[in-house]
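Researcher: Structure prediction, please.
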Amino acid sequence: MDYAKDIAKYTDSCDDACVAGIVRHCGIALQSRDASMVSCSDPSERARVRDSFLKKKLGRTEPDEALDAAILEVCETMKDTRSKSRVTFYYLLAQKYGQLDMFRTATA
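Model: Predicted structure follows.
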């Protein structure tokens, strides 16, 4: 999948180094189609994104309600696509919180 092209549908700027970092963070999950997508209609999936990505990876400490609202905002942004790429979803969340730099990788 061309993650940069997918991300470009939702934002004016796409940093390839940050995309590579998010892909590396997702790792083996991207090999499974089911795990590589985010299901906005599944409350347990949204909770997983909140707890595993926003809280653990990004270190967000806002109340769950605020984090859930951010997730739903990205769901709304991506509502035109049924299959929401986890990489794109995480990119948009990290961008929202100004934390894309933590995924920046050194490029040779």
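Model: The longest helix spans residues 43-57.
Researcher: Thanks, that helps.
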